[in-house]
Amino acid sequence: MSTSPEGPTEAIARRVSALRQRKGLTRQQLGEALAARGVEWNRFTVSSLENGKRQNVTVVELLALARVLDVAPVHLLVPVEDEHPFLVTPNEPVPAGRARPWVRGIVPLPGTDSRIFHTEVPLAELRAWSGEERPTPPLEG
């Protein structure tokens, strides 16, 4: 892991900037789209995040950003580059490729009690993973 570790807010800021530009949205347009979803952001809030002046993003804001930018929240929260170091706690970097399955609830991080990790799963998901049930189809949008 050669690059310096990135925390959640820094990862979100970098990904929001890249995805916003990829979608061809201005900061103003992203702020308006978030406001339309009930998150009162404007171009200054977007700019503060992207420029590293905003230190936190709430869970509600993260979900709204993911919704507006058409990505899964995990792909805003955790870098998409597998070897990029990501801070799962302020002093615990792991490769992003290791953090994503943890965030998804698939694989525990080292040192985790895997019995607890694997039992705190909704029953429907356990059944789907075991092949007892078919996963719920995606909603048509």
Describe the protein.
It is built from eight helices and two strands. With 141 residues, the protein is mainly alpha-helical. It has one domain (1-107): lambda repressor-like DNA-binding domains (434 Repressor (Amino-terminal Domain), Orthogonal Bundle). It starts with 7 loop residues before the first helix and ends in an 11-residue tail after the last helix. The model has no long low-confidence stretch (mean pLDDT 91).
SSE inventory with pairings:
Blueprint: H1 8-22, H2 27-36, H3 43-50, H4 59-69, H5 74-77, E1 85-89, E2 92-95, H6 96-103, H7 114-119, H8 123-130
Antiparallel strand pairs: 1-2
CATH homologous superfamily heading: lambda repressor-like DNA-binding domains
End-to-end gap: 39 Å
Structural class: mainly alpha
- Average pLDDT figure: 91
Helix content: 40-55%
CATH uppermost class: Mainly Alpha
Stretches where pLDDT is under 50 for at least 5 consecutive residues are: none
What does the main sheet amount to? 2 strands, antiparallel
Q: What's the domain count?
A: 1
Order of helices and strands: HHHHHEEHHH
The CATH architecture assignment turns out to be Orthogonal Bundle
Overall, the morphology is globular
